[in-house]
Amino acid sequence: MLTLEKLRIAQEGFLLTAEITVKAGARVAVMGPSGAGKSTLLAVISGFFAPASGRVLWQGKDLTALPPAARPVSSIFQDNNLFPHLTIQQNVALGIRPSGTLSSAEQNTVQDSLARVGLEGFEARKPATLSGGQQSRAALARMLVQAHPIAVLDEPFSALGPAMRADMIALVRALCDDMGTTLLMVTHDPEDARRLDGDLALVAEGRVTQPARVHDLLDNPPPELRAYLGSHHI
Amino acid sequence: MTRRPAWPGILAALLVLGLSFGTIAAVLWRAEGRFALGPADWAALRFTIVQALLSAAVSVALAVPVARALARRRFIGRGVLVTLMGAPFILPVIVAVLGLVTVFGRNGWVSGLLAMVGLPPLEIYGFQGVVLGHVFFNLPLATRLILQGWLAIPAERFRLAASLGFTSTHVARQLEWPMLRAIVPGAFMVIFLICTTSFAVALTLGGGPRATTVELAIYQAFRFDFDLSRAALLALVQLLLSGTAALLALWVAVPQSLGAGLDRTVDRWDARRPGLRWLDSALIILAATFLLAPLAAIALRGLPGLTALPSEVWGAAWRSIWVALVSVAVTLGLALPMGLSIVALRGRALARGIEAAGYLSIAASPLVLGTGLFLLIFPIADPVALALPVTALINAVMSLPFALRALVPALGEIEAQYGRLADSLGLSGWARLRRLTLPRLRRPLGFAAALAGALSMGDLGVITLFADADAGTLPLLLYRLMGAYRMEQAGAVALILLALSVAMFWMFDRGGRVDADA
User: Fold this and answer.
1) Helices within B153-213 (DSSP H only)
2) Chain A residues contacting B, CB < 8 Å?
């Protein structure tokens, strides 16, 4: 279980509090207006931003003071998820170890994960020669070899078209199911949240709501969510 | 957050600080008190300021119309011309001086033309020569800085101006004048600063009691009179002068000149009148001629001499290459750790301290550094034997500000783009440097190395202080040949020096670009 305990996230003129639990293996879509603090919340979980107070716990273990690489968390960002000077294979290999030097068994792991995301044969290519969707797949392959129990995705597919985004979300769902990964993913699109078919947490008005079933919430939105979605949702 | 250790950068900064202030201390210590500026020293100070003011004023005044012409005209070769305007930076001063003498000297091309219509020849040596040399070097810089200002005006403004029926007078008043007011003071100050530290131009085109800069006076006090207290005092005067100029330049916010994006032109409906077209064409042709004629003169003069090169050339060339390569290594060895620390400590006072140490050499005088090192080395070893390593070291310190200018923004960019990803993957220390920073830094690193190499290759500064005649660098040999009026050979040597400088620049800059992924 991922627990955000009495979390207070402060930036200039901005305060966000969170008191929520996320069950292990849950898939949580994180939604809310721009500037509400969705990205900052994810940054606190992955260790890029220190909270003013409160704790981040995973299975009862306090993560709050750990640097990003020491946390059981894989991160995928909006962009710059791949180092452009390294090949796809090298980029994925970094998920196993920073030096990127692998044993042959580990090389097979990289190979398998690339095959799993549909990037067989792309090992030697540089990121710039891949399409946006393929780059996302490569980042997911790295997430696979990292094999961390938590994955936080900050609008990872926002640059992709609707059809491609649906494909990617299906892939993320399948990968998380395979590995039992606990997923938090920021998205702006209620359709994406539905496709993820898990829970939804709303970040609005300085507060993070406890995740609840996405379909229930979207079918019957509470006032804050209704305000965010506007009249022409669903 | 993963932090890089800051100590390598701090160490490098301390080294630079020690070198800058330690050498002044050494000079002061040996000066043994007798501190008074003589009339000749006051004259040198006055001359330095007056020529720098005039050089900066002329450069900027000429650059404004030339930049305007370049900003609003499109023609074949425009890109080449703009690129060439960046070239004086890597052009050895002594080579340019030889070219200027060939064109503007008493027996030069222009004097020849004047003689045909019965006018007396030009006199290049003295005040006017120093200003001419400085304008030659700084007109292109001023043009690029001001052109950047022009191109920074959004194209939409000019479209709006066109739709409102603005004439070029209106455009000048509403759009161009406000931009110039923001850009010109900075350009003026940076050129003033460059001209106050001038040594090689003053050494070759100035001299004598009426055209001696403070730097040149330091050289004379040290080399001819071995008057250390005067050298030390002048060193302080120089530091004060360029320090003040540097602070003023910082205060008026110097525009960046290393940026790209000068290849854009904006459609200018207000500038379509034939009169303006002719004016701009004439300005561009004049500016190009002024810059290219001396280079052409070198080529014309040097090519025939290539068959009769003096035998010392190859030894001197070899020493120059060697000094330049060492200088490149030292520059990068200082700039990289300093840049990494500046970015890692960003926002803290320590980062600003390291950065300030790196830029200190803009105000420090290479001749003072040289004199100080001479005095420090003297009790331990023969300074003449160490002339080349000392030259390499000082050249490296002089290149440091340019290297930092290139590296620090790039390092900041790398951290901004990939810092989080690297942190989340646990890339730190050596692995981060090798797998992320260095590969992403290739272009600016290549560019910094290229600048350092070319600057060192063409340097005629500290080497004049204490190299002996048969163990000097190529610029020193060229200076000696010119002094002996062996102009044919000087032309050939200048050509070789120019070729080596350009090759040095090209090699490193290219090395950073080849196979670098976007």
Assistant:
1) 155-163, 168-171, 177-196, 200-205
2) 46-48, 67-70, 73-75, 77, 80-81, 83-86, 94-95, 98-100, 126, 128
